[in-house]
Design brief:
2 domains; UDP-n-acetylglucosamine1-carboxyvinyl-transferase, Chain; binds uridine-diphosphate-2(N-acetylglucosaminyl) butyric acid
């Protein structure tokens, strides 16, 4: 679906099931290549990025099939060869294939993932730390050519708790000789999910979800199994949708334990929550309040992936808010789109100062990337009149069916 139409101003009410986590699914799909066997990935989201990762692993001989929401990947007969790289430069998660393919086959050729619209996306740390484990890289400037006749466990001190770097090093280490220790590792729940999956396949990893992870290399892995957690970013996006419109929703399967920074913010904005085994009940009966200052950080801090939806919601909050973006330099590029809707936002350095207006006004907008696109949908839900968003294919990279989900909550939203 390329375009989304929204008739705004309708409070969200009802319940919606939250899809499985994208950022857990992608590295786990790469990790299936490390083992020969039949893997089970339950609650896997049916999103464009997952379909693309499936194309890549199938190009290495994996056989994949779905049973409802559960995905099965058979890697018994792999045939390593060139990756079908048609979108390599645009989908960042293909970089995870570096650690997985080096670990299993000892070599890989990938295109550089390159930059992307949310800011520079360098891979320098990935290359430097995999080099420490025995990987040699070719000197081509357009492709990553990597070879490791033998990967060896070493101690890594990460310059920053990078999610992808931590995941790549874990994948390179599971079949390496000896023990790998990662200090200053990222602590995102998606890393814990990757390690849980690898341990179910016979890996020996401790400390996942903490700043120090230890991986003792094993000789071989077998089929693994995991049920993916609900996607905390999708749940957060819909929660912010409910905050901007008012109403009451049940976010079924939302991983409240992974949303500990957002939930107090929802309270500060005027929402109330009830957390049960089913998920998160959220109500916003009164007005929407501004929140003085939020900063994006690695987990357990406020996630950069929710920064744009939060920004969109705060545009019509009562009072002044500020958000500092510390992870990706270009995540404020939706601001001109929000300004077209009447938002009052001032950017200085990497801080957005938002003065709430009474109501945004619907207009024609253009999605330029995944989370920014979802944020425009949130803005449209709260706006008066009609919002028409072009170029929405980005949104389907990470949201299974945002129109279906929000329609279930009563929104007047249509995609085509
Ligand atoms: N960085 C470097 N050099 C490197 C690697 C990273 O300078 O070699 C920098 C980045 O430029 C960035 C910072 O380190 O400023 C953090 O990037 P990180 O490596 O943690 O991000 P990532 O692994 O590329 C994952 C998610 C992103 C999410 C970030 C931060 C996946 C597939 N992607 O990206 O998700 O924003 O962590 O939490 O897991 C999204 O879902 O929309 C998305 C972009």
């Amino acid at each position: 679906m390329k375009q989304i139409f929204i008739r705004g101003g309708v409070p969200l009410n009802g319940k919606v099931r939250i899809q499985g986590s994208k950022n857990a699914a992608l590295p786990i799909l790469a990790a299936t290549l490390l083992a020969g066997g039949e893997h089970e990935i339950k609650n896997c989201p049916k999103i464009a990025d997952v379909y693309y990762m499936l194309e890549l692993i199938r190009s290495q001989g994996a056989v994949t099939y779905w049973k409802g929401r559960d995905l099965y990947v058979n890697t018994c007969h792999l045939t390593p060869g060139p990756l079908e790289e048609k979108k390599e430069g645009t989908m960042r998660s293909s970089i995870f294939l570096l650690g997985a393919m080096l670990g299993r086959f000892g070599e890989v050729v990938l295109e550089y993932p390159g930059g992307c619209v949310i800011g520079d996306r360098p891979v320098d740390w990935h290359l430097a730390h995999l080099h420490k484990m025995g990987t040699e890289f070719g000197d081509s400037s357009c492709q990553i050519t990597a070879k490791a006749s033998r990967l060896v466990g070493v101690e890594h001190e990460l310059p920053f708790p990078s999610v992808g770097l931590t995941e790549n090093l874990v994948m390179a280490a599971v079949l390496a000789e000896g023990t790998t220790v990662i200090h200053n590792a990222a602590r995102e729940p998606e890393i814990a999910a990757l390690c849980e999956f690898l341990n179910s396949a016979g890996a020996c990893i401790t400390g996942a979800g903490q700043a120090d992870i230890t991986i003792v290399g094993v000789n071989a892995l077998h089929g693994g199994s995991i049920t993916l957690p609900g996607d905390r970013i999708v749940a957060g996006t819909y929660a912010l949708g409910c905050m901007i419109t008012g109403g009451g929703v049940l976010l079924e399967g939302a991983p409240a334990g992974h949303m500990t920074r957002l939930i107090p913010l929802l309270h500060a904005m005027g929402g109330s929550t009830l957390i049960t085994e089913e998920g998160i009940y959220l109500h916003r009966r009164e007005g929407l309040c501004a929140i003085p200052y939020t900063v994006t950080e690695g987990y357990p801090g406020f996630p950069t992936d929710l920064q744009s939806p939060l920004l969109a919601a705060l545009c019509s909050a009562d009072g002044e808010s500020a958000i500092e973006e510390r992870i990706f330099g270009n995540r404020f590029r939706i601001v001109p789109q929000l300004e077209k809707m009447g938002a009052d936002i001032h950017i200085k350095d990497n801080v957005a100062y938002i003065r709430g207006v009474e109501k945004l006004q619907g207009t024609t907008l253009k999605a330029e990337e995944l989370r920014g696109g979802a944020a425009l949908v949130i803005a449209g839900l709260g706006a008066g009149g009609e919002t028409y968003i072009e170029n929405c294919s980005h949104i389907y990279r990470g949201y299974e069916n945002i129109c279906r989900d929000l329609s279930e909550l009563g929104a007047r939203i249509y995609g085509e």
